[in-house]
Amino acid sequence: MKRKTWWIAGTAIVVVAAVGLALGLTLGRSKGAAETTAAAQTTVAVKRGSISNSLVVYGSVVPKQEYTFAFAGERVKSIQVSVGERVTQGQTLVELDATQQRLSLLQAERALAEAQAGGAPADIKEKEILHQIAQENYDDATLKAPFAGVVTAVNQATASSASWSIVLIDTSELYIKADVDQLDAPDVAAGQSATAVIEPLPDKTWPVEIVEVGGMAQSSGNSTLVEVTGKLPEADPSILVGYTAQMEITIASADDVLIVPISCLTETPQGWTAMKMVDGKATAQAVTVGATSDTYAEIKSGLKEGDLVLNSSGSGTGASGTRAPQQNQNVEFLRTGGMPMGGFDGPRMP
């Protein structure tokens, strides 16, 4: 009998100790939760600053213009340029055999002279046109550069093509062509500024102006893309056509405007709202939002400089940096005489 009483007493002591431990743990958890909730709600002062949002795209350097001369290989008399050579406008690139063209030109000159000697006006006009055509054909036997540039290719005839060709590019202006996802394309417009990094020249950046946004979207794999063109300010000789490049396009910016962390704002069907502190209480305030970035938003109306608003992330760095008053700081404790959720497994009776 005494042994049984001992077990009952022991069990009671263990139960009381366990209840005390559970209560202490619950109080500790409740206190921690309360502190976490408080930490998650800080106030941030509306302040003035600058804000920008950018889009990063990838592409390659392209020339201002490109021209390809194609001609029959059997007519080639001489190629007067080589790959990589810089040429001036009007410089001779290729001399073609012009025997037949020269003969046609002489015949056209004689026919025109005879018509002018006593022919009808209509006959003279016809001979003038034929002479002009013969002259152009003869002139075309000498291929000249239509602009100053760089020869990038001299291609001879192959099994698949009987034509020769020379490719000339105009590097007086350089551009970057990049593809933008169709979802981002509406945010890009001509006149926006960007910063470019040329992959083979990573230690330098170049300012870029967006000069053209493609007029149509094209599918590429699982994406639909729009081509965007940015102009480099000057033709740097260190930048070669074909280099890969990255452009960071500023799609929205504002200077000396009211800003708050974007975590202070909530978007509703009626618009944006912020929880403004009024007499120590958080009050919903409708605001008009302008430019946004990943972390901040421009406030166009609804708040003024110095106003305090709740920052739900708790990471605000506003002027106040104070904790917001807690609307409900009650801590839920165990019910009197209750047990922790899930019960308590005391010592088993023997």
Q: What would the average pLDDT be, to the nearest integer?
A: 81
- What amount of the residues lies in strands? 35-45%
> Strand arrangement, largest sheet?
2-8-11-10-9-12
Low-confidence stretches: 1-39, 315-350
**What about the largest sheet?**
6 strands, antiparallel, barrel
Number of helices: 3
Overall structural class, as computed from helix and strand content, comes to alpha+beta
Number of strands: 17
Q: What gyration radius follows from the Cα positions, in whole Å? A: 40 Å
Task: Tell me the series of helices and strands, N- to C-terminal.
Answer: HEEEEEHHEEEEEEEEEEEE
Shape: elongated
Ends apart, CA distance between termini = 13 Å
Can you give the helix content as a percent range?
Answer: 10-25%
What is the gist of this entry?
Helices cover 22% and strands 45% of the residues. It has three helices and 17 strands.
Question: Can you walk through the features of this model?
Answer:
This protein has 350 residues and is α+β, with helices and mostly antiparallel strands. The chain is 22% helix and 45% strand. It has helices at residues 2-40, 99-118, 121-139, and strands spanning 42-45, 47-72, 76-79, 86-87, 92-96, 142-144, 149-155, 163-181, 193-198, 201-220, 223-231, 244-261, 265-268, 271-278, 281-292, 296-301, 308-311. It has a six-stranded antiparallel β-barrel with strand order 2-8-11-10-9-12. It has a three-stranded antiparallel beta sheet with strand order 3-5-6, with no helix packed on it. A two-stranded antiparallel ribbon has the order 1-17. A hairpin with a 2-residue loop joins strand 9 (193-198) and strand 10. Helix 2 (99-118) runs antiparallel to helix 3 (121-139). The chain is elongated and about 105 Å long. Mean pLDDT is 81; it is low at 1-39 and 315-350.
